[in-house]
Amino acid sequence: MANSHTNVPYGYEPPAASRKGTLIFYDTFEQITDEQLENALNLTNSRAFAQLVLYPLHESTFKRMRSGNIQPYFKREDRLHDWKREHPDARIRVEGLEGKRKKYTPMDTALRHIKAEYPAPHFLYLTTEMANLFASFDSFKEWIKEVRIVIDGPATELHPRLEQNKNRWDWAE
Fold first, then answer.
1. CA distances (Å), 172 to each of 18, 31, 92, 95, 140, in order?
2. Is residue 14 part of a domain?
3. Is 47 inside any structural domain?
4. pLDDT (tens digit, 9 = 90+) per residue, 38-59?
5. Which superkingdom, per the lineage (predicted)?
6. How many CB atoms are closer than 10 A to CB 66?
7. CATH number, domain at 105?
8. Residue 13: pLDDT band with limits 50, 70, 90
9. Whole-angstrom distance, CA of residue 57 vs CA of residue 61
10. CA atoms lying within 13 Å on the CB side of residue 116
11. HSE of 134, CA atoms in CB hemisphere, 13 A
């Protein structure tokens, strides 16, 4: 690495970043529509987030969380990449951690990875069902202090822990 010097005027301060934080859409993307993806992208732009991260879950992670059938990981990931190509100007990233691991990844591990990889503050964009599932985990009490949640979906019955932490989440517009 070469030493390079740059001359700047006395009292110069670099401009502050106009975009801060990361919006992470954490889901299986099995039932997610293009309209919901567009809503997440619009929220990213309206709140001036640095980027939108799409975090698809591996089949084994889904099977540990809920029961049911799901498409293979690579098909869901390909769909997200196709949607991303439709928006060349947007700051979108499809996170591939679960595709690399190819096994069950606890939500704690995923959140630690997100925290280390992406700029803070971190906002999780979750469906109502996924938010209730997240609130049911024991580690929710620690993570709700470090992340904020944006819930997309109908205003159905919410988990009691979400009700207790109303100041840490809000509804998607």
1. 22, 17, 18, 22, 20
2. no
3. yes
4. 999 999 999 989 999 999 988 8
5. Bacteria
6. 12
7. 3.40.50.620
8. confident
9. 6
10. 7
11. 27
Tokens 């993570």 belong to 143
Structure tokens, 74: 């690579």
pLDDT at 6: 79
Measure the CA–CA gap between 75 and 64, rounded to whole angstroms. Answer: 20
Q: What is the DSSP letter of 109?
A: H
Please return the burial class of 150, using the count of CB atoms within 10 Å of its CB with bins 0-12, 13-18 and 19+. Answer: buried
Tally the residues of the chain. Answer: 173
> 121 to each of 33, 52, 66, 83, how far by Cα in Å?
26, 12, 29, 25
Structural domains in the chain (count): 1
Neighbouring C-beta atoms of residue 32, cutoff 10 Å: 20
Range of the domain at 48: 22-171
